[in-house]
Amino acid sequence: MAVQSASAQTTPRTHSTVASSGSAASIFSGEWQARKKKKRHKATIANPDTLPQPLISIIPGSTINLLSRSSKLPIVINNGYDTQVRVRVRVQASNLKVLIPAVVEVTVPANTTVTAKVPVNAIADGNVVLHATLESFSGLRLTVPVNIKMTVLLGVEDTVIYAFLAFVTLLAAFGVFRTIRKRREPEAQREQSS
Q: Which of the two residues, 76 and 54, has the higher pLDDT score?
């Protein structure tokens, strides 16, 4: 029974202490919240231009016109380090008009510029923005994505091929016509002279 009475005595004391210090608790909680509001830090987003940039980077180029179903996209990589660097070039398209089937691994010698050839498969005509980045072999992104604009013109390739074939056919037909005409002219002259 002594155990029960001890617990009974401590319980009212705790409640009475909380009850009597209720105004103090509210003062402290209010003061704490005021301090919390004063110490709040605003989250800022880092500006990519002010961040330290690695010495390996992708050099952006002009708009690329893709005229065939499959080709190799040139990505120019500059290495400013004093040692060679092995990187992976990852290119992602903004829409499904172009598919990039693979990540390309490139070794860039020290203080040089290399052009990586990334395979590209065209699906449909239109404009595409490609986002190119460099990664380490562990998948760590080394550069900020570089936007490369591409215009896919699949119909042009077919049109050029058909126009070329039509031109060759017309040229051959004209050559055959001219050859037949030249053969007939001497025969017509012989008949007139006799």
A: 76
The token pair that represents 183 in the structure block: 């053969």
Contacts of 175 (CB under 8 A, 6+ apart): none
Residues 17 and 84 in one domain: no
* Other Cβ atoms closer than 10 A to 67: 15
Answer for the pair 142, 128: CB distance below 8 angstroms, yes or no: no
Pairwise CA distance, residues 89 & 56, whole Å:
12
What is the 3 state secondary structure string of 118-177? EEEEECCCEEEEEEEEEECCCCCECCCCEEEEEEECHHHHHHHHHHHHHHHHHHHHHHHH
Query: 38 and 84 in contact (C-beta within 8 Å)?
Result: no
Q: Output the pTM of the full model.
A: 0.56
Domain that holds residue 141: 56-156
In a domain, 139, yes or no: yes
pLDDT digits (tens, 9 = 90+) for 130-176: 999 999 888 889 888 999 999 998 877 677 888 899 999 999 999 99
